[in-house]
Structure formats: structure tokens, C-alpha cells
Write a structure and sequence with these properties.
This protein is mainly beta. Helix content is 11%, strand content 51%. The protein has one domain (2-427): Porin. The strands form four sheets. Strands 2-3-4-5-6-7-8-9-10-15-16-17-20-21-22-23 form a 16-stranded antiparallel barrel. Strands 11-14 form a two-stranded antiparallel sheet. Strands 12-13 form a two-stranded antiparallel sheet.
Length: 428
């Protein structure tokens, strides 16, 4: 499987360096501040080209894709094998996503729509092979500066790691605690706005996915989310300080809750697992901070969830501290509409031509720690230190290598594991 992975990577690399692919790179900045008539609170950015964009009298349409190919290798000690079983090397298409976005021009302030579908993608359970809809929503502006409503299946809008698209993050996978404590996508209604000359963002959402779960509205349980971000310091996208806080309330589905987390490797089993337990609801509080100084970015995020149970309420904690440095001098642009770092576009694309640039090179390091032990619940404790190297030959392609060393403390056993992870990525 490793040989097949590298053959596919070589094919993608050849495409990325070809002259035709370079012609696709018309000026594109997905993180520029957009006005309220063009808001995109949930839609993934799509690069507009003549062939994938239609502009009509009553509507517009953009077609985008994202393909992610991964290969993961786990090196476990005997204790870790005892804890979670043997984790074999695996190659997978991590994401095969198709995205359609556009504006409906029947209204004074055009409505925006988004539909995305995936085959065994970022949200599909491991081992499934099915085509599923990831997003389907409408964004409705409430006037020129009054914000907008998003209706349908969408991101919940909390937690920086889940606000930004996964293809634009510093590391191959989100930190272990983010998927455990925040649901990436949900069905509901959400209000969003950017305030104070785009130095502040605010969002508030109500969700209940009973339409997809098959349960009744009350049995399924509802969620409430809110997030506030501030820019106390902002000179340029290369010199800023971002602060944010978020909150998520969730009813217990059918009177029970459970929490699971993978070790930041999608082909591995859950290392953290509380099992299902009787509960009424949970409250999750989130803090986030970002400092950008030229090509250096530092990020910290903390989450704590307090679970309401019949007896003593347990609390679980997650910490993420990391950063990256673009050796070639770039920086990610900051999206003032949604309050997150955005897509990286190299200063000069790499080509096999005289005078070609090198593309962009990024190195990063991160430490994450997740504690799901409290009161009578023993879900485990997992910490991981990760190093990352990424090469962006142009705005469409990315090639990454991550290595993570993790320690799992569970069931009175302390195990160690190392993960080698390789990724080839294309998005339009």
C-alpha cells in the first residue's frame, strides 16, 4: 500500500508542476474581507476560474473539489498494543469532496447557498464507503450591516480548529480534543456578524439533527453554540493578535452521553473512550489565542466540558499549544468575517523553469493533551507532541509529513506510540 501511495503522490506532483496547472492560478484570495452581501460563514473557498464559474442574471455557481490522500504508520510499544490493539499501516483517501457554492440574486442582498458531498470523507465513520452530503445550507443577509442567518447543515461555528477548513490547518489532523468536544457539522440555524470595523466577530446557533438521526426532536437533544472573537492588535495580516471565547451546550441524546477521540491519526482506533453513560447535558467552554508576526504564527486553544450526571459532575479537559514558521516568508491571511487564519498562497509558485520560485515551505510543532478521567469515568489521558513539514508548490497542491510521539495513560497502563503520517492534497 505504501508503494501505491507514493505512486499516486508522484502523479499529483507531476500535475502540480505542469504548465497547465500553473495557468489555473489566477489571482485568488479566499481570506480577503467580504462585504455583507457576499458573506460566506460556512462555505469552503472555491477558486474561481472561467471553466468552473457561471455568472447568470438570477444566480451564480462555483464548482470546487478537494482530494486528500494519506498514509499512516504507527510504531507502538507493547503496552500501547495491550491498550488499543495493533494499529497497522494504512493508506486512505482521507477526503474526496465536491463543493457547489453561489449566490441567488433574486433579493436586494443576494442569498448564498452551499452544497458539498463527500465519499468516505472527513466526517464519515472509519470503514464506511458511502457518498454523503456534508453541507447543505442557505446564508441570508439581514441587510447591509445587520449580519446574516445560515439555515441547514453547517459548521457549528465554535472552536478555531473547526471554524477553519481542515485543508488549511498547520497540521494534517485537528488536535485530539477538538473532534471529541465539538461537533464539526450540525443541522440548525445560526446568526453571525462582524462588528467594530471587522475587529470583532459574533455567532450564535441553535441545532438539532433529528432529521438525520431518525430520533424525535426531544429524544435527539439540541445544541446551543456561541463564539466571540476580537482583534486587540491588528496592523496587517502579518502582525496581529486574535483572542476568542466560545460556549457549547448539548442535551444528552436519549439520556446518555459518550466521548471518543482518535490519536490525531484517522486510521487508528479511538485512544480515548469514556463509553456511554447516563447524563442530562453538557457545557463546554473554549478559549483561543493567535499571534502572527510575519511568517511565524502561534496558536493556543483550551476546552473544558462539564457533564451533568445524576451524581458528581465529571469534567474533561483539552489543551492545544503550537505554531508554525514559513521558511519562505509567507503568512496566512486572516479572515475577519469568520475570525480564523485562512489559506496559504505561495509568493512564487514552483515550476521546472528558469527563474521559478520554490513554492512555500512551512515547519510546525504542536503539543496536545486530552484528559477524560474524572469522578467515576475513566476515558483515558493522551498527550502528543507533533512536528510537521509542508510544501506548497502552488495554491492548489500541498504535500505534508507529520511525526507525532504520543503517550496514553489508560486502565492503569502507560503506553507509547509514534505516528508517521504522509499527505498529498489537491483543492480547487
Amino acid at each position: 500500500m505504501l508503494k501505491s501511495f507514493f505512486l499516486l503522490v508522484s502523479f499529483l506532483l507531476a500535475l502540480s508542476l505542469g504548465s497547465q496547472s500553473q495557468d489555473l492560478l489566477a489571482s485568488f484570495n479566499d481570506t480577503a474581507t467580504v462585504n455583507h452581501a457576499e458573506v460566506t460563514s460556512t462555505a469552503a473557498p472555491v477558486m474561481k476560474k472561467n471553466w468552473n464559474h457561471f455568472e447568470g442574471k438570477n444566480f451564480s455557481l462555483n464548482f470546487g473539489v478537494a482530494f486528500i490522500l494519506d498514509h499512516n504508520i504507527a510504531v507502538q510499544d507493547d503496552n500501547n498494543i495491550t491498550q488499543v490493539g495493533k494499529v497497522n499501516a494504512a493508506t486512505e483517501f482521507r477526503g474526496e469532496r465536491f463543493i457547489v457554492t453561489g449566490n441567488l440574486k433574486f433579493f436586494k442582498y443576494p442569498w448564498r447557498y452551499m452544497v458539498s458531498a463527500n465519499f468516505n470523507g472527513l466526517d464519515a465513520p472509519q470503514g464506511t464507503k458511502k457518498f454523503s452530503f456534508i453541507d447543505y445550507n442557505i446564508e441570508i443577509p439581514l441587510g447591509k450591516t445587520a449580519g446574516w442567518l445560515t439555515l441547514g447543515k453547517q459548521k457549528e461555528g465554535v472552536g478555531h480548529e473547526y471554524v477553519l477548513p481542515g485543508t488549511q490547518a498547520m497540521f494534517m489532523e485537528r488536535g485530539s480534543g477538538a473532534p471529541m468536544l465539538v461537533r464539526q457539522r450540525n443541522i440548525g440555524i445560526r446568526y453571525s456578524n462582524s462588528l467594530k470595523n471587522n475587529r470583532m466577530t459574533f455567532t450564535f446557533g441553535l441545532f438539532n439533527d433529528f432529521l438525520e438521526s431518525g430520533l424525535s426532536f426531544s429524544e435527539n437533544g439540541s445544541q446551543i453554540t456561541t463564539r466571540l472573537t476580537l482583534l486587540p492588535q491588528y496592523k496587517t495580516d502579518a502582525n496581529l493578535l486574535h483572542l476568542g471565547l466560545g460556549y457549547r451546550y448539548s442535551d444528552a441524546k436519549q439520556g446518555k452521553l459518550s466521548y471518543k477521540a482518535k490519536p490525531e491519526s484517522n486510521t487508528a482506533p479511538s485512544y480515548i473512550n469514556t463509553g456511554s453513560f447516563i447524563a442530562q447535558a453538557s457545557n463546554t467552554f473554549m478559549l483561543e489565542a493567535i499571534k502572527v508576526n510575519g511568517p511565524v504564527s502561534l496558536i493556543a486553544e483550551y476546552m473544558v466540558v462539564s457533564v451533568h450526571v445524576p451524581e458528581k459532575n465529571p469534567s474533561f479537559h483539552y489543551l492545544h499549544v503550537g505554531g508554525s514558521w514559513f521558511i519562505t516568508g509567507e503568512n496566512r491571511r486572516y479572515n475577519k468575517t469568520t475570525g480564523n487564519l485562512g489559506k496559504l498562497i505561495p509568493k512564487k509558485n514552483f515550476k521546472f523553469r528558469k527563474g521559478s520560485g520554490s513554492g512555500a515551505f512551512e515547519v510546525g510543532a504542536r503539543y496536545t493533551y486530552l484528559d477524560a478521567n474524572d469522578q467515576a469515568i475513566e476515558g483515558g489521558q493522551f498527550g502528543r507532541l507533533t512536528g510537521a513539514v509542508s510544501w506548497y508548490p502552488n495554491a492548489h497542491f500541498r504535500f505534508s509529513v507529520n511525526y507525532g510521539h504520543g503517550k496514553l495513560d489508560k486502565n492503569d497502563i502507560k503506553g507509547k506510540v509514534g505516528f508517521w503520517q504522509f499527505r498529498a492534497q489537491f483543492e480547487l
